[in-house]
Amino acid sequence: MEDLKNWTSFINGDKQSLEIIYTKYYDQLLNYGLKLFSDPEIVKDCIQDLFVKLYSSKKIKPTMHVRPYLLKSIRNILIDKLAKQKLLVSENEISFHMPVDEEDLEKKFGGNDEELLMLKKLLHSYDQLSDKQKQILYFRYIQELSHKEIAEILDINEQSSMNSSSRALSKLRNLLLDKENQVFLSGDDLKKNLILLCMVSK
Q1: How high is the pLDDT of residue 68?
Q2: C-alpha–C-alpha distance, residues 78 and 34, integer Å
Q3: In whole angstroms, how far apart are CA 35 and each of 4, 138, 194?
Q4: Which helix (H) or strand (E) holds 95?
Q5: Is the overall model pTM greater than 0.90, yes or no?
Q6: Pick from 18, 127, 139, 169: most CB atoms within 10 A?
Q7: Interatomic CA distance for residues 7 and 114, integer angstroms
């Protein structure tokens, strides 16, 4: 409700409300942008471009979901910027990735061999998901968005988001089976460790 209040105030001419939104979501936008393209300066420029565009626009669309609106916008702006700089030919070339260095994992979890091994296996398994599945799990468990909000960002319907999430979690569980077909992680542990991977990723 606070987001909606600030967005409505901004639309009605209160520019300070946009500053509140910028401060609140900058890190989340940067985190997402870097998972689409690894150059921090370009991603930061895109965030700046987004808020300059919002600030100077004479007509802003109302929205009930501010964060999904911003996340979708930053993705579109990034795609446009990369295309203009000849770093991207088509939207299909941009891919979502969670850049985790195994050395960083070892530094953070080296004292726990079992957890380190599991995180390495999870990272390898996560990399085998489709681009859409990766993003849906990221939005659902890292950004903690609803399936309705995820659908808005990715231009899919809500049921598709739910189905893709379920299939992705099922695939991860299958990939994480050991030789005796014992699942390494429960559903809750799987989500928790996805969050750990994201925290380590650059």
Answers
A1: 94
A2: 10
A3: 27, 10, 14
A4: none
A5: no
A6: 139
A7: 46
Number of helices followed by number of strands (H, E) in the chain = 10, 0
Inter-residue contact 79 to 157 (CB < 8 Å)? no
With tokens 């579109």, the residue in question is 76
Evaluate whether 154 touches 135 at the Cβ level (below 8 Å): yes
The residues with which 177 forms a beta bridge, in sequence order, are 183
Q: Does an H or E element contain 76, and which?
A: helix 66-84
Q: Residue 177 — φ and ψ, nearest 5°?
A: -70, 140
70-87 burial code (b ≥16 CB/10 A, e <16): bbbbbbebbbebbeeeee
Tracing tokens 């609106």 back to the chain, one arrives at 69
Gyration radius (Cα) of the chain, Å: 19
Q: Is 177 helix (H, G, I), strand (E, B) or coil?
A: strand
Torsions phi, psi for 85 (to 5 deg): -90, 10
What is the C-alpha separation between 8 and 12, in angstroms, rounded? Answer: 6
Residues in the chain: 202
CA angle 19, 20, 21 (to 5 degrees): 90
Given a cut of 90, is residue 85 above it in pLDDT? no
Spatial contact of 122 and 193, defined as CB atoms under 8 Å apart: yes
- Residue 159: both structure tokens together: 């049921």
On the question of pLDDT at 181 being above 80, the answer is no
Q: Amino acid identity of 59?
A: K
The whole-number pLDDT of residue 124 equals: 85
